[in-house]
Design a protein that fits this description.
The protein is of the alpha/beta class. Helix content is 40%, strand content 12%. The protein has a five-stranded parallel β-sheet, with helices on both faces. The chain has a five-stranded mixed β-sheet with strand order 8-9-10-11-12. The chain starts with a helix and ends in an 8-residue tail after the last strand.
Length: 410
């Protein structure tokens, strides 16, 4: 049985493609025994797993090629340290994850990588059994955003470490397009030193020459493929609705049309305040159900919800944004206001590592309860009162920060 899985494993590892090293790879503590890589559809979770497999196997091979002081091999060549398995395999209709893990551990394996886990019933219970039964085994698995992990899962909440894989940042996109290797910066570094940082970067490249194409198609790795980016992104969006929302949330398939219509309304209007009564009437659902569906769209990373600091679901958000600008531009029946795209990009760039809220002051956003931010299209002749992210600004000055530079947070 393991031989068949290893044949698939070898083919996938050989043909996997991750064109740049994702920053998350260095942020994970790989010594943890149960690791969840959580991320939206299309951000490259499978290639991320396979890239880690490559790293481990290359290190293992390097160790096996060197002898210790007594001339003994450090690692046996006949042991396979990693196994990647997709739960798509029909084998799992009659067999369990624990069975595979047991045979793998007995063969000397140490790292079990699991994909498509949501298709397996009682997956969290099986992972806990593996954790308790095989103390030498490390299990790393992909999770969709709507799968209950951490505190939402009684089986895993005390044993799993969860990490979020996002789409390409503007920094990653720029590095890909130019072959350069710009590092990331903290939000505090950018706020305090944005003028000097932007000058250092602009001495090597013109970021604004790349920024608008990033807003259009740079967030998802699929832009690197020869296929139509729009067709691939449309397929991803439909999978998010049909699998992440309908299947995992166990919603009747008859409601798919209403979900699609709800998403279309939000795409048509976002960023916007919500008129729940009008939307509920338009799609033919109750207010409560409409709010639940909006939360599901948010959980699946199709939209973002902006709340005041002391508010949260199930209360109505202050504003709704598309999750990223690539999604925002997937509706072709509206003309896109640049400021709306810049606001959306600001939210996407910031919220992965920071808390983003609306404010009842005149500022647009408050970050981590202490940084008030505005977003605008063009720079002001006079300096602004508070930090302002400016979409069409190349070099920072005063409180005016180039919006593209906030894409260097990861």
């Amino acid at each position: 049985m393991l031989d068949a899985f290893f044949r698939i494993h070898d083919f996938l590892v050989e043909h996997s493609f991750m064109p740049i090293r994702r920053q998350l790879m260095d942020e994970i503590n790989w010594d943890d025994r149960l690791i969840a890589i959580k991320g939206g559809r299309g951000v490259g979770k499978t290639d991320f797993l396979l890239s880690r497999v490559k790293e481990i196997e290359e290190a293992w091979k390097s160790m096996s090629e060197h002898s210790d002081s007594l001339g003994r091999k450090k690692t046996p060549l006949d042991i396979r340290p990693c196994l990647y398995v997709s739960l798509n395999d029909f084998y799992f209709t009659e067999h369990t994850i624990v069975e595979v893990a047991s045979k793998f551990v007995k063969s000397g394996g140490q790292y079990l990588f699991l994909d498509q886990l949501f298709k397996y019933p009682n997956w969290s219970r099986e992972l806990k059994r593996c954790y308790n039964k095989f103390p030498t085994l490390h299990v790393i698995f992909c999770a969709t955003p709507v799968m209950p992990i951490d505190e939402d899962n009684n089986d895993l909440k005390d044993i799993v470490k969860t990490y979020n894989l996002r789409g390409f940042s503007f920094r990653e996109y720029l590095n890909l397009q130019t072959g350069l290797r710009f590092r990331s910066y903290t939000l505090e570094e950018i706020i305090q030193r944005h003028a000097s940082i932007s000058r250092e970067i602009c001495d090597r490249v013109k970021p604004l020459d790349y920024f608008k194409t990033y807003l259009d198609h740079g967030y998802y790795p699929s832009y690197l493929e020869s296929k139509s980016f729009e067709a691939e992104l449309l397929k991803t969006m439909n999978t998010q609705l049909e699998v992440d929302v309908l299947m995992i949330k166990q919603i009747d398939v008859a409601c798919l049309h209403k979900l699609r219509k709800l998403l279309y309304i939000l795409m048509r209007e976002a960023p916007c305040a919500l008129n729940i009564s009008n939307i509920s009437e338009e799609i033919g659902l109750s207010r409560a159900t409409t709010m639940n569906y909006i939360k599901y769209l948010k959980d699946s990373r199709l939209i973002n919800l902006l709340y005041l600091e002391d508010k949260n679901f199930p209360m109505k958000p202050t504003k709704v944004y598309m999750h990223n600008t690539n999604l925002a531009q997937m509706i072709f029946t509206r003309e896109h206001n640049p400021v709306n795209l810049y606001e959306t990009n600001f939210y996407t760039a910031i919220h992965g590592a920071h808390k983003v809220n609306a404010t009842d002051r005149s500022a647009m956003f408050i970050i981590d309860g202490k940084y008030y931010f505005d977003v605008r299209e063009t720079p002001s002749m006079r300096d602004t009162i508070r930090p302002t992210a400016v979409g069409e600004l190349e070099l920072g000055r005063g409180n005016q920060i180039p919006l593209w530079l906030l894409g260097f947070l990861y």
